[in-house]
Amino acid sequence: MPQNKLSIAFYNLENLFDTINDPNILDDAFTPKGELGWNSSRYAEKLNKLSQVIVKIGKAETGSAPAILGVAEVEYRKVLRDLVTTEALQHLNYDFVHYNSPDGT
């Protein structure tokens, strides 16, 4: 496997929200009492599935996970921290820069 290649990727996390209601964020549906019945088990499962996909992006071409990964549809910093510390990703020592942009919908 060539060692001189790195991958840079972008992945839409499709509404990665934790289960905690934040009055400053439109996250009511993603709470245990919300319309989606979002709970800790479902949140952990989503984190696990996302991390399993992310670690495979570019691996066939470079032999490793993406060196840089841009993401979208993230509630806030905490969910990114939860994602990068999953079992599949923690060994990659990912860190992140986060910009919270308002969602007017």
TrEMBL record:
InterPro entries on file: Endo/exonu/phosph_ase_sf, Endo/exonuclease/phosphatase
Residue ranges annotated for the Endonuclease/exonuclease/phosphatase domain, each copy included: 7-103
Record-given protein name: Endonuclease/exonuclease/phosphatase domain-containing protein
Lineage: Bacteria, Pseudomonadati, Bacteroidota, Flavobacteriia, Flavobacteriales
